[in-house]
Q: What sequence folds into this?
C-alpha cells in the first residue's frame, strides 16, 4: 500500500448527503477507497447502500457534497466514469429474453470490447455458467444470474467495480464462490466496492464501512473493528430461548441483548451487575440449565454495539 | 459502429422473440384497414335491384346493363306488373326498383326528354338516398355515352338530382386517412414501450452506466420498428389497392417516400413518449388513447377541418397525420407530382427532426 500513498484514491467521497423528501437517505458520508481494495459497505436494508452506489455510479445526483471515482468528478465527468466502471445493481438487470451468451455479447460491445478480449477476467466465473450459455437469462437460477451479471459488469475490464448486494438471494455455496472470485479480481488490480446485509461477508473485505440510517458508524478493517469492541460480551443459552430473551431484556442491568443464531449475546452494565447476579435473576425467573459464557465479538456484535451507542448518544 | 450494430441486433431479438406482440403488430394493421375501410365507407355495394320494363328496347337494356355491371348493383328479377314492386321490398331484399315507361327508347328522342322512376326503400333513408344517387349518376353517364354515339343531345332525367358525387370519390378519399391513422397509432405504440420497458426491467440502470450515448440508444430502437413498419406499409397498400380498390394514380415511389417520412415521424413520436413515461402502461395509454382522438378527429380524416372552430384548425396543424393525409390524397388519388406536396413533405421532415431532437434532449441520463 505504501507506494499508493502519493496516488489519488480510487473512490473519494466527501460529505455526501441525499434526501428523499423528509427521509435522509445519506447524511454527510465521507470515505476513501484505495486502489485494488475490497471495500465493503455493511448495513441492513434501507440503510442507504443503494443510494450511495447510485451516486458513485453517476446515476443520481447528491444534494450536497462531492465525490470522485478514478479521479473524475461524478457530476461533471460522468461520461468518462461510465466508460471505466462496472456496475451490478441489486436487482437483476440483464435482458431476460436474451440468452446468457447474447447478454454477455451485448454488454461487451456496448463497452466497445469483445468477449475474447477480456475473457481471462471472467473465465473462472463464466465456465460455471457456460453449459447454459444458450439458455435465456430469465430462466437461470438466482446464483447463476448473479454470476452472469458479474460477468457482464466485468467484461470491459473496469477499473472500479460496484456490486450492490451481489449475494442477496444466493445460496451459501454460491456466495462462498462469489467471494472467492472477488478475491481473484482484486489481484487483477480491480478496486471493488461491495455492499451486503450479511455480516459474515464483512470479514472477507479489506476494509468495511458500517452504515445505518444513512450514516457511517465506522470505517475500519474487519480485524480492527472486532478488536475495538470494548465491552465484555457473553453468550447466554437456555431451554426456553424466546422466554429467556424476554426475561434478559427485562433485567434492570442489561446493556444490550439480541438473538444470535442459537444463543443470545448480551453485554451488562458492568459496574452494576455481574454474571453471578444475572444467573440468580434468571433462576428466580424459572430458567434451568442456563449457560453463560464469555465470547469474542463478531462484526455483527460490533454493528449492534455501534448502533446501540449511537442511539444512546441521541437520548 | 459495432456498438450500434450490436444494439440493433439486440432490439431485433427482443421483438422477434416476443411472438404475441409480433403477431399483434403485423395483424393489427390488416384488421384496422378492414375495419376502417368498410366501417367508415358510406358506400352501398352489391345491392340487388329489380326492373319493370314494358319497353324492352336497346336503351332500357343499356341502362340496366350499366347498373348491373357497376360494382354497386346486382341485377335481380324483371317484374311483370306494378303490383310486384312493393313485394320487392317487403318479401325480397331488393334495394332499388327501376321503372321504365312504355316505348322508352322512342321517347328518348323527344326534346322534352324521358323520365325514369327510381324506387328505393324509404324506411332506411340514408341507404335509399345513396342508392338513388348512385343509380342516377350511372344513368346520366349512360345518357352521355349515348349522346356521343348519336351526336345528339339526349335527355334521360332521373327524378333524383345529383347533389354530390360520393359514388366516385368517397371510398378513395378515406383510404389515405385510414393509412394516416393506422401508421401513426401502430408506430407510436411500438416505440413508446421500448424505452419504458428498459426502465421497468431495470436494464436502463445498467445501460446508463456504460458509454452508450442517448442518440445511439434512440436510433437503435427505431431501426427494427422501421422494418416492421415497412411490412405493415406493404400490407396496407396491398389491401387498399386490391381489397378497397383504391387506385394509385400518382407516382408509387412518391407514395412510398411520403409514407416512409411519416413512419419516421410516428416512430419518433413514440420514442418521445417513451422518454417521458416511466411505466409501460402509461406509455401505452398516451400513445393509444392520447393519440387516437386528435388523430382521428383533427386530421381531416373523417371530418372536414374547414368546418371546425379556428382554434381547433390551428391545433390540427401540429398533427402529423393531417399533412400526411393531404399529401397522400394529392398523390395517390389526384395523381399530383412532388411539387404539389413539397410543403407537406417539408413539414413532416421538420416535425420528425424536431421530435427526435426533443427525445434526445429529454432522454434522462440519470435515474431521476
A:
Amino acid at each position: 500500500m505504501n507506494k499508493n500513498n502519493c496516488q489519488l484514491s480510487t473512490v473519494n467521497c466527501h460529505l455526501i448527503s441525499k434526501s428523499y423528501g423528509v427521509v435522509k437517505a445519506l447524511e454527510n458520508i465521507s470515505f476513501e477507497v484505495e486502489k485494488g481494495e475490497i471495500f465493503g459497505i455493511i448495513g441492513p436494508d434501507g440503510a442507504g447502500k443503494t443510494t450511495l452506489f447510485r451516486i458513485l455510479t453517476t446515476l443520481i445526483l447528491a444534494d450536497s457534497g462531492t465525490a470522485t471515482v478514478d479521479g473524475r468528478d461524478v457530476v461533471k465527468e460522468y461520461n468518462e466514469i461510465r466508460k471505466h466502471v462496472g456496475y451490478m445493481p441489486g436487482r437483476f438487470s440483464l435482458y431476460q429474453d436474451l440468452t446468457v451468451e447474447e447478454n454477455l455479447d451485448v454488454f461487451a460491445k456496448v463497452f466497445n470490447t469483445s468477449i475474447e478480449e477480456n475473457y481471462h477476467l471472467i473465465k473462472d466465473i463464466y465456465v460455471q455458467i457456460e453449459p447454459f450459455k444458450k439458455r435465456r437469462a430469465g430462466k437461470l437460477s438466482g446464483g447463476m444470474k448473479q454470476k452472469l451479471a458479474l460477468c457482464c459488469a466485468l467484461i470491459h475490464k473496469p477499473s472500479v467495480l460496484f456490486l450492490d448486494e451481489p449475494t442477496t438471494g444466493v445460496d451459501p455455496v454460491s456466495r462462498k464462490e462469489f467471494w472467492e472470485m472477488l478475491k481473484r479480481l482484486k489481484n487483477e488490480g480491480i478496486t471493488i466496492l461491495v455492499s451486503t446485509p450479511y455480516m459474515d461477508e464483512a470479514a472477507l473485505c479489506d476494509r468495511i464501512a458500517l452504515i445505518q440510517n444513512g450514516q457511517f458508524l465506522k470505517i475500519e478493517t474487519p480485524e480492527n473493528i472486532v478488536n475495538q469492541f470494548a465491552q465484555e460480551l457473553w453468550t447466554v443459552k437456555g431451554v426456553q430461548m424466546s422466554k429467556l430473551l424476554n426475561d434478559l431484556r427485562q433485567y434492570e442491568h442489561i446493556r444490550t441483548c439480541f438473538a444470535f443464531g442459537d444463543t443470545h449475546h448480551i453485554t451488562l452494565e458492568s459496574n452494576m451487575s455481574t454474571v453471578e447476579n444475572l444467573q440468580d435473576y434468571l433462576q428466580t425467573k424459572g430458567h434451568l440449565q442456563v449457560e453463560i459464557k464469555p465470547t469474542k465479538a463478531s462484526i455483527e456484535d460490533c454493528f449492534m454495539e455501534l448502533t446501540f451507542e449511537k442511539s444512546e448518544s441521541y437520548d | 459502429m459495432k456498438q450500434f450494430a450490436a444494439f440493433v441486433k439486440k432490439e431485433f431479438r427482443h421483438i422477434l422473440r416476443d411472438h404475441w406482440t409480433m403477431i399483434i403488430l403485423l395483424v393489427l394493421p390488416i384488421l384496422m384497414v378492414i375495419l376502417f375501410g368498410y366501417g367508415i365507407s358510406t358506400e352501398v355495394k352489391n345491392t340487388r335491384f329489380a326492373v319493370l320494363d314494358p319497353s324492352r328496347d336497346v336503351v332500357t337494356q343499356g341502362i340496366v346493363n350499366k347498373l348491373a355491371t357497376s360494382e354497386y348493383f346486382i341485377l335481380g328479377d324483371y317484374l311483370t306488373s306494378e303490383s310486384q314492386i312493393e313485394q320487392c321490398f317487403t318479401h325480397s331484399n331488393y334495394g332499388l326498383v327501376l321503372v321504365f315507361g312504355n316505348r322508352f327508347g322512342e321517347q328518348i328522342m323527344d326534346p322534352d326528354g324521358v323520365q325514369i322512376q327510381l324506387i328505393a326503400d324509404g324506411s332506411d333513408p340514408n341507404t335509399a338516398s345513396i342508392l338513388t344517387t348512385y343509380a342516377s349518376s350511372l344513368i346520366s353517364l349512360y345518357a352521355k355515352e349515348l349522346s356521343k354515339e348519336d351526336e345528339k343531345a339526349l335527355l334521360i332525367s332521373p327524378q333524383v338530382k345529383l347533389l354530390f358525387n360520393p359514388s366516385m370519390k368517397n371510398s378513395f378519399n378515406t383510404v389515405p386517412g385510414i393509412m394516416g391513422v393506422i401508421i401513426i397509432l401502430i408506430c407510436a405504440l411500438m416505440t413508446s414501450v421500448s424505452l419504458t420497458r428498459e426502465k421497468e426491467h431495470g436494464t436502463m440502470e445498467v445501460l446508463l452506466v456504460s458509454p452508450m450515448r442517448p442518440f445511439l440508444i434512440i436510433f437503435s430502437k427505431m431501426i427494427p420498428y422501421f422494418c416492421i413498419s415497412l411490412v405493415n406499409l406493404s400490407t396496407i397498400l396491398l389491401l387498399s389497392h386490391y381489397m378497397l380498390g383504391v387506385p394509385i394514380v400518382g407516382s408509387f415511389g412518391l407514395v412510398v417516400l411520403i409514407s416512409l417520412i411519416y413512419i419516421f415521424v410516428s416512430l419518433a413520436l413514440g420514442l418521445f413518449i417513451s422518454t417521458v413515461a416511466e411505466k409501460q402502461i402509461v406509455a401505452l395509454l398516451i400513445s393509444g388513447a392520447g393519440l387516437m382522438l386528435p388523430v382521428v378527429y383533427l386530421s381531416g380524416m373523417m371530418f372536414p377541418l374547414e368546418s371546425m372552430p379556428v382554434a381547433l384548425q390551428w391545433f390540427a396543424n401540429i398533427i402529423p397525420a393531417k399533412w400526411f393525409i393531404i399529401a397522400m390524397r394529392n398523390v395517390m388519388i389526384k395523381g399530383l407530382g412532388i411539387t404539389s406536396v413539397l410543403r407537406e413533405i417539408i413539414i413532416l421532415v421538420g416535425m420528425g427532426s424536431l421530435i427526435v431532437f426533443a427525445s434526445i434532449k429529454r432522454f434522462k441520463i440519470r435515474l431521476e
Remarks:
- Chain B touches chain A at residues 2-3, 5-7, 10, 13-14, 17-18, 201-203, 205-212, 365-368 (CB under 8 Å).
- The two ends of chain B are 29 Å apart (CA to CA).
- The mean pLDDT of chain B is 85.
- Residues 248 and 332 of chain B are 5 Å apart (CA to CA).
